[in-house]
Amino acid sequence: MSYRLAFLQALKASWRRIRALCFKEFLAMWADPGTRKILIVPILVQSLVFGYGATFNLSHIPFVVSDESRTPLSLRFIGGLQGSTYFTLQGYYVNSAVANAALNNSEGVFALYFPPDFATTGELYFAGDGRNSTSAATALSYLNEYVTLFNRTAARPVTLSYADTYRIPGYRYLFNEQNITRHSILTGMIMALSLIQVLMLSAMTVAREREEGTFDMLLMTPATPPEILVGKALPPITVAVGQSLLLFLICISYFEIPFQGSLLTLTAVIAVFSFCYVGVGLAISVLARSAQQALVISFLIMLPSIILSGLLTPLEAMPPGLGEAVRYLNPLCYGIEALHRVYLEGQTFGEIAFLLVPQLLIAVLSLALTMRLFRKAL
Question: What is the pTM of this model?
Protein backbone atom coordinates (compact mmCIF):
# COMPACT_ATOMS: atom_id res chain seq x y z
CA MET A 1 0.00 0.00 0.00
CA SER A 2 2.91 2.37 0.77
CA TYR A 3 4.26 1.91 -2.79
CA ARG A 4 0.85 2.73 -4.19
CA LEU A 5 0.55 5.81 -1.97
CA ALA A 6 4.04 6.96 -2.97
CA PHE A 7 3.18 6.49 -6.65
CA LEU A 8 -0.04 8.49 -6.29
CA GLN A 9 1.79 11.28 -4.46
CA ALA A 10 4.49 11.39 -7.15
CA LEU A 11 1.81 11.44 -9.85
CA LYS A 12 -0.01 14.25 -8.08
CA ALA A 13 3.21 16.27 -7.70
CA SER A 14 4.01 15.69 -11.39
CA TRP A 15 0.57 16.93 -12.40
CA ARG A 16 1.05 20.08 -10.27
CA ARG A 17 4.28 20.84 -12.13
CA ILE A 18 2.66 20.17 -15.51
CA ARG A 19 -0.31 22.36 -14.57
CA ALA A 20 2.02 25.20 -13.56
CA LEU A 21 3.87 24.90 -16.89
CA CYS A 22 0.56 24.96 -18.77
CA PHE A 23 -0.54 28.06 -16.88
CA LYS A 24 2.79 29.71 -17.71
CA GLU A 25 2.35 28.87 -21.41
CA PHE A 26 -1.16 30.34 -21.51
CA LEU A 27 0.11 33.55 -19.88
CA ALA A 28 2.99 33.73 -22.36
CA MET A 29 0.60 33.25 -25.29
CA TRP A 30 -1.66 36.06 -24.14
CA ALA A 31 1.19 38.42 -23.20
CA ASP A 32 2.86 38.20 -26.62
CA PRO A 33 1.06 40.50 -29.12
CA GLY A 34 2.08 38.34 -32.10
CA THR A 35 0.80 35.15 -30.50
CA ARG A 36 -2.37 36.94 -29.40
CA LYS A 37 -3.10 37.76 -33.03
CA ILE A 38 -2.68 34.08 -33.90
CA LEU A 39 -5.35 33.28 -31.32
CA ILE A 40 -7.94 35.69 -32.72
CA VAL A 41 -7.29 36.57 -36.37
CA PRO A 42 -7.19 33.17 -38.15
CA ILE A 43 -10.66 32.02 -37.12
CA LEU A 44 -12.27 35.30 -38.20
CA VAL A 45 -10.43 35.45 -41.51
CA GLN A 46 -10.95 31.80 -42.38
CA SER A 47 -14.64 31.74 -41.55
CA LEU A 48 -15.31 34.78 -43.75
CA VAL A 49 -12.93 33.98 -46.62
CA PHE A 50 -13.78 30.31 -46.94
CA GLY A 51 -17.42 30.76 -45.98
CA TYR A 52 -18.12 33.30 -48.71
CA GLY A 53 -15.20 33.13 -51.14
CA ALA A 54 -14.21 29.45 -51.37
CA THR A 55 -17.21 28.03 -53.18
CA PHE A 56 -17.80 26.48 -56.58
CA ASN A 57 -21.52 27.22 -56.44
CA LEU A 58 -22.07 30.11 -58.86
CA SER A 59 -24.65 32.87 -58.91
CA HIS A 60 -25.19 35.74 -61.39
CA ILE A 61 -23.13 33.95 -64.06
CA PRO A 62 -22.46 36.44 -66.90
CA PHE A 63 -23.36 35.25 -70.40
CA VAL A 64 -23.90 36.66 -73.89
CA VAL A 65 -26.46 35.73 -76.53
CA SER A 66 -26.43 35.57 -80.31
CA ASP A 67 -30.10 35.42 -81.30
CA GLU A 68 -30.49 35.00 -85.03
CA SER A 69 -33.96 33.55 -84.47
CA ARG A 70 -35.62 36.52 -82.74
CA THR A 71 -38.79 34.56 -82.08
CA PRO A 72 -41.09 34.54 -79.04
CA LEU A 73 -39.63 31.15 -78.05
CA SER A 74 -36.03 32.43 -77.97
CA LEU A 75 -37.04 35.64 -76.16
CA ARG A 76 -38.98 33.62 -73.60
CA PHE A 77 -35.98 31.33 -73.06
CA ILE A 78 -33.62 34.29 -72.60
CA GLY A 79 -36.09 36.09 -70.35
CA GLY A 80 -36.29 33.06 -68.09
CA LEU A 81 -32.51 33.04 -67.75
CA GLN A 82 -32.49 36.75 -66.93
CA GLY A 83 -35.11 36.23 -64.24
CA SER A 84 -32.99 33.57 -62.56
CA THR A 85 -30.53 34.43 -59.80
CA TYR A 86 -27.99 32.13 -61.43
CA PHE A 87 -27.52 34.02 -64.72
CA THR A 88 -26.90 37.64 -65.76
CA LEU A 89 -27.22 38.70 -69.40
CA GLN A 90 -24.24 40.84 -70.40
CA GLY A 91 -24.97 41.27 -74.07
CA TYR A 92 -27.74 40.49 -76.57
CA TYR A 93 -26.53 40.33 -80.18
CA VAL A 94 -28.00 39.31 -83.51
CA ASN A 95 -24.66 38.68 -85.16
CA SER A 96 -22.78 35.59 -83.95
CA ALA A 97 -19.41 37.21 -84.76
CA VAL A 98 -20.16 40.00 -82.28
CA ALA A 99 -21.11 37.42 -79.64
CA ASN A 100 -17.83 35.61 -80.32
CA ALA A 101 -15.90 38.83 -79.80
CA ALA A 102 -17.75 39.47 -76.53
CA LEU A 103 -16.87 35.98 -75.30
CA ASN A 104 -13.24 36.50 -76.34
CA ASN A 105 -13.20 39.71 -74.28
CA SER A 106 -14.42 37.76 -71.21
CA GLU A 107 -17.76 39.58 -71.10
CA GLY A 108 -19.39 36.25 -70.28
CA VAL A 109 -18.54 32.79 -68.99
CA PHE A 110 -20.45 31.29 -71.90
CA ALA A 111 -22.38 32.24 -75.04
CA LEU A 112 -25.70 30.90 -76.32
CA TYR A 113 -26.34 30.76 -80.06
CA PHE A 114 -29.92 30.67 -81.36
CA PRO A 115 -29.87 29.69 -85.08
CA PRO A 116 -32.47 31.12 -87.48
CA ASP A 117 -34.49 27.87 -87.40
CA PHE A 118 -34.56 27.66 -83.60
CA ALA A 119 -38.37 27.92 -83.44
CA THR A 120 -38.62 24.92 -85.76
CA THR A 121 -35.82 22.64 -84.49
CA GLY A 122 -35.66 23.75 -80.88
CA GLU A 123 -31.86 23.49 -80.95
CA LEU A 124 -29.54 26.11 -79.49
CA TYR A 125 -25.77 25.95 -79.07
CA PHE A 126 -23.54 26.46 -76.06
CA ALA A 127 -19.95 27.74 -76.09
CA GLY A 128 -18.08 27.97 -72.80
CA ASP A 129 -14.97 29.99 -72.02
CA GLY A 130 -12.24 27.33 -71.69
CA ARG A 131 -9.98 29.82 -69.95
CA ASN A 132 -12.34 29.53 -66.99
CA SER A 133 -13.17 25.86 -67.40
CA THR A 134 -14.47 25.23 -63.87
CA SER A 135 -17.02 28.04 -64.05
CA ALA A 136 -18.00 27.10 -67.61
CA ALA A 137 -18.62 23.48 -66.60
CA THR A 138 -20.69 24.56 -63.61
CA ALA A 139 -22.67 26.99 -65.78
CA LEU A 140 -23.35 24.19 -68.26
CA SER A 141 -24.77 21.96 -65.54
CA TYR A 142 -27.02 24.80 -64.33
CA LEU A 143 -28.13 25.48 -67.90
CA ASN A 144 -29.05 21.84 -68.43
CA GLU A 145 -31.28 21.98 -65.38
CA TYR A 146 -32.91 25.17 -66.68
CA VAL A 147 -33.56 23.54 -70.09
CA THR A 148 -35.26 20.63 -68.34
CA LEU A 149 -37.50 22.98 -66.37
CA PHE A 150 -38.21 25.15 -69.42
CA ASN A 151 -39.31 22.14 -71.48
CA ARG A 152 -41.97 21.26 -68.92
CA THR A 153 -43.89 24.40 -69.81
CA ALA A 154 -42.73 25.10 -73.37
CA ALA A 155 -44.89 24.06 -76.33
CA ARG A 156 -41.72 23.30 -78.29
CA PRO A 157 -39.00 21.24 -76.50
CA VAL A 158 -35.58 22.90 -76.48
CA THR A 159 -32.36 20.94 -76.96
CA LEU A 160 -28.98 22.20 -75.81
CA SER A 161 -26.28 21.03 -78.21
CA TYR A 162 -22.57 20.77 -77.48
CA ALA A 163 -19.91 18.44 -78.78
CA ASP A 164 -18.86 15.13 -77.21
CA THR A 165 -20.98 15.46 -74.07
CA TYR A 166 -23.41 12.94 -72.66
CA ARG A 167 -26.21 13.66 -70.28
CA ILE A 168 -27.25 11.56 -67.25
CA PRO A 169 -31.06 11.41 -66.90
CA GLY A 170 -31.03 11.54 -63.09
CA TYR A 171 -28.60 12.03 -60.21
CA ARG A 172 -28.45 12.94 -56.52
CA TYR A 173 -25.79 13.94 -54.00
CA LEU A 174 -25.46 11.97 -50.78
CA PHE A 175 -24.76 13.77 -47.47
CA ASN A 176 -24.89 17.17 -49.24
CA GLU A 177 -28.13 17.08 -51.22
CA GLN A 178 -27.82 20.57 -52.70
CA ASN A 179 -24.14 20.05 -53.61
CA ILE A 180 -23.13 23.25 -51.77
CA THR A 181 -19.34 23.32 -51.78
CA ARG A 182 -19.29 25.54 -48.70
CA HIS A 183 -20.50 22.54 -46.70
CA SER A 184 -17.43 20.48 -47.52
CA ILE A 185 -14.82 23.26 -47.67
CA LEU A 186 -15.80 25.16 -44.52
CA THR A 187 -16.19 22.01 -42.43
CA GLY A 188 -12.81 20.81 -43.71
CA MET A 189 -11.35 24.13 -42.59
CA ILE A 190 -12.21 23.14 -39.01
CA MET A 191 -9.38 20.63 -39.25
CA ALA A 192 -7.13 22.98 -41.21
CA LEU A 193 -7.56 25.62 -38.49
CA SER A 194 -6.57 23.04 -35.90
CA LEU A 195 -3.42 22.34 -37.93
CA ILE A 196 -2.55 26.04 -38.19
CA GLN A 197 -3.06 26.75 -34.50
CA VAL A 198 -1.34 23.71 -33.02
CA LEU A 199 1.63 23.92 -35.40
CA MET A 200 2.27 27.65 -34.99
CA LEU A 201 1.68 27.78 -31.23
CA SER A 202 3.76 24.69 -30.45
CA ALA A 203 6.53 25.87 -32.77
CA MET A 204 6.75 29.12 -30.80
CA THR A 205 7.14 27.57 -27.32
CA VAL A 206 10.81 26.62 -26.92
CA ALA A 207 11.92 29.08 -29.63
CA ARG A 208 10.30 31.94 -27.71
CA GLU A 209 12.01 30.78 -24.49
CA ARG A 210 15.40 30.88 -26.23
CA GLU A 211 14.73 34.30 -27.77
CA GLU A 212 13.63 35.81 -24.46
CA GLY A 213 16.48 34.18 -22.53
CA THR A 214 14.24 32.19 -20.19
CA PHE A 215 15.14 28.72 -21.50
CA ASP A 216 17.91 28.25 -18.91
CA MET A 217 15.52 29.28 -16.14
CA LEU A 218 13.07 26.66 -17.40
CA LEU A 219 15.73 23.99 -17.02
CA MET A 220 16.29 25.02 -13.40
CA THR A 221 12.73 24.19 -12.44
CA PRO A 222 12.01 20.86 -10.69
CA ALA A 223 10.09 19.66 -13.78
CA THR A 224 11.58 16.71 -15.67
CA PRO A 225 12.03 16.81 -19.48
CA PRO A 226 8.89 14.68 -20.10
CA GLU A 227 6.90 17.00 -17.84
CA ILE A 228 8.23 20.07 -19.66
CA LEU A 229 7.28 18.45 -22.96
CA VAL A 230 3.74 17.69 -21.76
CA GLY A 231 3.42 21.19 -20.33
CA LYS A 232 4.45 22.63 -23.68
CA ALA A 233 2.13 20.34 -25.66
CA LEU A 234 -1.17 20.67 -23.79
CA PRO A 235 -1.80 24.45 -24.26
CA PRO A 236 -1.53 24.38 -28.12
CA ILE A 237 -3.80 21.31 -28.24
CA THR A 238 -6.33 23.01 -25.95
CA VAL A 239 -6.32 26.23 -28.00
CA ALA A 240 -6.60 24.31 -31.29
CA VAL A 241 -9.55 22.24 -30.07
CA GLY A 242 -11.28 25.31 -28.61
CA GLN A 243 -10.92 27.40 -31.75
CA SER A 244 -11.95 24.52 -33.99
CA LEU A 245 -15.11 24.08 -31.94
CA LEU A 246 -15.75 27.81 -32.24
CA LEU A 247 -15.51 27.53 -36.04
CA PHE A 248 -17.85 24.53 -35.76
CA LEU A 249 -20.39 26.74 -33.97
CA ILE A 250 -20.05 29.33 -36.76
CA CYS A 251 -20.72 26.56 -39.31
CA ILE A 252 -23.94 25.39 -37.69
CA SER A 253 -25.30 28.73 -36.45
CA TYR A 254 -24.22 31.36 -39.00
CA PHE A 255 -23.76 29.35 -42.20
CA GLU A 256 -26.46 26.82 -41.18
CA ILE A 257 -24.53 23.73 -42.27
CA PRO A 258 -26.50 20.75 -40.90
CA PHE A 259 -24.61 18.70 -38.31
CA GLN A 260 -25.42 14.99 -38.43
CA GLY A 261 -22.99 13.49 -35.90
CA SER A 262 -22.05 13.57 -32.23
CA LEU A 263 -20.31 16.59 -30.70
CA LEU A 264 -18.28 14.30 -28.44
CA THR A 265 -17.03 12.29 -31.43
CA LEU A 266 -16.22 15.48 -33.34
CA THR A 267 -14.23 16.82 -30.38
CA ALA A 268 -12.32 13.53 -30.12
CA VAL A 269 -11.43 13.67 -33.82
CA ILE A 270 -10.10 17.23 -33.50
CA ALA A 271 -8.15 16.38 -30.32
CA VAL A 272 -6.49 13.32 -31.89
CA PHE A 273 -5.53 15.32 -34.96
CA SER A 274 -4.10 18.16 -32.83
CA PHE A 275 -2.15 15.60 -30.80
CA CYS A 276 -0.77 14.29 -34.10
CA TYR A 277 0.76 17.64 -35.10
CA VAL A 278 1.88 18.95 -31.71
CA GLY A 279 4.98 16.73 -31.82
CA VAL A 280 5.91 18.19 -35.21
CA GLY A 281 5.52 21.72 -33.88
CA LEU A 282 7.59 21.02 -30.76
CA ALA A 283 10.33 19.44 -32.89
CA ILE A 284 10.44 22.63 -34.97
CA SER A 285 10.58 24.70 -31.79
CA VAL A 286 13.54 22.71 -30.42
CA LEU A 287 15.47 22.94 -33.69
CA ALA A 288 14.73 26.62 -34.41
CA ARG A 289 17.01 29.28 -32.96
CA SER A 290 14.44 32.08 -33.02
CA ALA A 291 10.69 32.55 -33.10
CA GLN A 292 10.87 33.95 -36.63
CA GLN A 293 12.76 30.88 -37.85
CA ALA A 294 10.17 28.64 -36.18
CA LEU A 295 7.33 30.45 -37.96
CA VAL A 296 9.04 30.15 -41.36
CA ILE A 297 9.57 26.40 -40.92
CA SER A 298 5.94 26.04 -39.76
CA PHE A 299 4.66 27.72 -42.92
CA LEU A 300 6.87 25.48 -45.05
CA ILE A 301 5.13 22.45 -43.52
CA MET A 302 1.67 23.96 -43.17
CA LEU A 303 1.01 25.15 -46.73
CA PRO A 304 1.86 21.86 -48.52
CA SER A 305 -0.13 19.96 -45.89
CA ILE A 306 -3.26 22.00 -46.64
CA ILE A 307 -2.80 22.22 -50.41
CA LEU A 308 -2.10 18.47 -50.72
CA SER A 309 -4.92 17.39 -48.41
CA GLY A 310 -7.73 17.20 -50.95
CA LEU A 311 -9.58 20.07 -49.26
CA LEU A 312 -9.35 22.55 -52.14
CA THR A 313 -8.03 20.40 -55.00
CA PRO A 314 -8.98 16.74 -55.52
CA LEU A 315 -6.32 14.12 -54.91
CA GLU A 316 -7.52 12.35 -58.05
CA ALA A 317 -6.30 15.32 -60.12
CA MET A 318 -2.72 14.92 -58.92
CA PRO A 319 -0.10 13.02 -60.95
CA PRO A 320 -0.12 9.22 -60.59
CA GLY A 321 1.65 8.18 -57.42
CA LEU A 322 1.56 11.61 -55.79
CA GLY A 323 -2.13 11.38 -54.89
CA GLU A 324 -1.68 7.92 -53.31
CA ALA A 325 1.44 9.02 -51.42
CA VAL A 326 -0.28 12.14 -50.10
CA ARG A 327 -3.36 10.16 -49.10
CA TYR A 328 -1.30 7.84 -46.89
CA LEU A 329 1.37 10.22 -45.59
CA ASN A 330 -0.50 13.49 -44.96
CA PRO A 331 -2.28 13.38 -41.57
CA LEU A 332 -4.61 16.16 -42.70
CA CYS A 333 -6.15 13.78 -45.26
CA TYR A 334 -7.12 11.39 -42.46
CA GLY A 335 -8.36 14.25 -40.31
CA ILE A 336 -10.57 15.85 -42.97
CA GLU A 337 -12.06 12.52 -44.01
CA ALA A 338 -12.83 11.62 -40.39
CA LEU A 339 -14.39 15.02 -39.74
CA HIS A 340 -16.55 14.88 -42.90
CA ARG A 341 -17.74 11.41 -41.96
CA VAL A 342 -18.80 12.64 -38.52
CA TYR A 343 -20.15 16.06 -39.51
CA LEU A 344 -21.90 15.35 -42.80
CA GLU A 345 -22.64 11.61 -42.55
CA GLY A 346 -23.16 11.19 -38.80
CA GLN A 347 -20.78 8.26 -38.38
CA THR A 348 -19.89 7.05 -34.88
CA PHE A 349 -16.50 6.87 -33.21
CA GLY A 350 -16.20 3.18 -33.97
CA GLU A 351 -16.83 3.74 -37.66
CA ILE A 352 -14.07 6.33 -38.03
CA ALA A 353 -11.57 4.76 -35.59
CA PHE A 354 -9.51 3.31 -38.46
CA LEU A 355 -8.80 6.91 -39.58
CA LEU A 356 -7.53 7.88 -36.11
CA VAL A 357 -5.02 5.03 -35.76
CA PRO A 358 -2.54 6.43 -38.36
CA GLN A 359 -2.73 9.85 -36.69
CA LEU A 360 -1.94 8.34 -33.29
CA LEU A 361 1.02 6.46 -34.76
CA ILE A 362 2.37 9.68 -36.31
CA ALA A 363 1.85 11.45 -32.96
CA VAL A 364 3.82 8.79 -31.05
CA LEU A 365 6.69 8.88 -33.56
CA SER A 366 6.85 12.69 -33.68
CA LEU A 367 6.73 13.03 -29.88
CA ALA A 368 9.43 10.38 -29.47
CA LEU A 369 11.61 12.31 -31.93
CA THR A 370 10.87 15.55 -30.10
CA MET A 371 11.81 14.01 -26.75
CA ARG A 372 15.12 12.88 -28.19
CA LEU A 373 15.81 16.32 -29.65
CA PHE A 374 14.76 17.94 -26.39
CA ARG A 375 17.09 15.78 -24.32
CA LYS A 376 19.89 16.56 -26.78
CA ALA A 377 19.17 20.29 -26.43
CA LEU A 378 19.39 19.98 -22.68
Answer: 0.72
